Amino acid sequence: TEVSTRTRELVERRALRLGPNVSTFYEEPLHLVRGEGVWVWDADGNRYLDCYNNVPHVGHCHPRVVEAICRQASMLNTHTRYLHEGMLDYLDRLTATFAPELSTAILTCTGSEANDIAIRMARAVTGQTGIIATNHTYHGNTLAVSQLSRTNPPPGGHWPNVKFVPAPDSYRPLGGEGGQAHALVFAAEVERAIAELKADGFGLSAIILCPFFANEGFPDLPPGWLDPAIEVVRRAGGIVIADEVQPGFGRLGTHMWGHQRMGFVPDVVTLGKPMANGHPVGGVVTRPDAMAAFRKSFRYFNTFGGNPVSAAAAMATLSVLQDEQLMDNAREVGAHARQGLADLALRHPVIGDVRGSGLFFGTELVKSRTTREPATAYTKQVANEMRRRGVIINFLGVHYNTLKIRPPMPFSRADADLLLARLDEVLIELPLDLDA
Ligand code: PMP
């Protein structure tokens, strides 16, 4: 389709005002002007089914969240050095969803800040500076946290206190065998990274990982899979940071948090994106001893983090999530949608693997199921074609050939059926070029 004049104009204004390299999704970027529930509308009045955005967690413009923000904004908003119940009431309710020892918290404005604090906590607790992350992740945009993304190396290279381990891949497991064997190979990689950090004089402060490995392509890993790696880290004196920015807040359908689904208790948990339905709220949850070590080592103050309006937005979001039983919805609708993808796989050999949990799922597209060669160019075409047909999805993973489906939590069976019908059409009509 023709890129409209207005779209081209906005793209040019962005480049002029924001500078080069500011990314947008899609060959024809979307210009969205309105949202409601699982739907968004563009400036020309076209409606799109949102199957991708986790920030509007309880649905775009949920009236209870909108009302909570407006009510508090018209009453008081200020920085966080005065007493106010808003933040404390919210944190009482939030920490109740974690293991009892994870009872203290800090509110921030972004997931990046939360991870930055987590790294400092690990330093305060252990007295060491070495960090381990996977080689295909993203944890945020601060100077320190951006060092954890190997996919986008900073000028001058990475800080030497960061070591990378191969991202788990259940479809092509390191060592060739899945399950427990794969878990032990991963743990051995972590052990190797620890030895390097110690040899280089940094010691081990933490491993940071998303317990669902969302950016890595959400491999299918059974509960307990991380236990061997965690044991290696703890034996070496390090702590475990779980970045729950993507899988948290009930998205996986079975548990409120990704680490609960994997069956372990992290030392530090970081939160973001869906936390206040789009209002900028992130956070760190940890044990009182780790919090005390952090508070003693670093004088930390966050002007906006957990201010009265942010706290009201976060409280309303969590209340809606619980009152509308959206985690149960995620489990039920997610299972239905994955079954639908498995049915599509019977007719479309390009679908190599179907995986995920709750309303965080997708499929790897491959040129051949025998070789499992990623159909990376095709996957991008599919995402763009879905957008042209009014369905927003995207793609990621180690080979960028995994369709990522992660809709707002009120996503219904009928919504899933519409997504599946459109995907079926696209896979029928879009030819796979084996040489691309
Ligand atoms: N952690 C993970 C796993 C993320 O995916 C992101 C954002 N994509 C962040 C942290 C950073 O969050 P923010 O953009 O709010 O700083």
TrEMBL record:
Q: Record's Pfam families? A: Aminotran_3 (PF00202)
What SUPFAM superfamilies is this protein classified in?
Answer: PLP-dependent transferases
CDD domains the record matches: OAT_like (cd00610)
**Which PROSITE patterns is this protein grouped with?**
AA_TRANSFER_CLASS_3 (PS00600)
Cofactor(s) listed in the protein's UniProt record: pyridoxal 5'-phosphate
Q: Which InterPro entries match?
A: Aminotrans_3, Aminotrans_3_PPA_site, PyrdxlP-dep_Trfase, PyrdxlP-dep_Trfase_major, PyrdxlP-dep_Trfase_small
Keyword entries, A-Z: Pyridoxal phosphate
Q: Which family does it belong to?
A: Belongs to the class-III pyridoxal-phosphate-dependent aminotransferase family.
The name this protein carries in UniProt is: 4-aminobutyrate aminotransferase-like enzyme
Q: Which organism is it from?
A: Hydrogenophaga palleronii
